[in-house]
Amino acid sequence: MDHVCGSRLVLGLGSGFSVPETEEEFRAVRAEFSGRAGRLDGTVALWHTAWQRPEDGGSVDFTGRHFQAEGLDRLPPPHGPGGPPLWLAGSGTPRVVERVARHYDGWMPFLPYARAYGEARDRVQRTREAAGRRTPSRPPCTTRSPSTRTPHGRAP
Fold it and tell me: Average pLDDT, stretch 2-19?
């Protein structure tokens, strides 16, 4: 998908609400409901590893809590360096804020009031800086290339 859209893809991810309907969906595909956030974070770590391209041309392998993979360097590389931005949908709890700050490029919050958004965004920023992660210079949703614009400056 990253190739098809020329690095304009922003991938939104979520591990699912803790409600009966979501638990039923997990049961329907025989997936364990508990541990879902850790598995999602593990998947993201595997993708980030797979999207690396070592300068020495060496093998890229991954060993995580939930997944192991070898020879990831043989996969086609993403269109842009580092792959598409990965955004996490989630609440503003300390645990979600920590996950966003450490593993994701953006956050799609669902909070009850505007002030909560600002407070949680500030917590994400502080946690990101404490983890030594660079803050994106602008939100991925504003990174359309000029070639995708119509003569009137609107995206197609």
Answer: 89
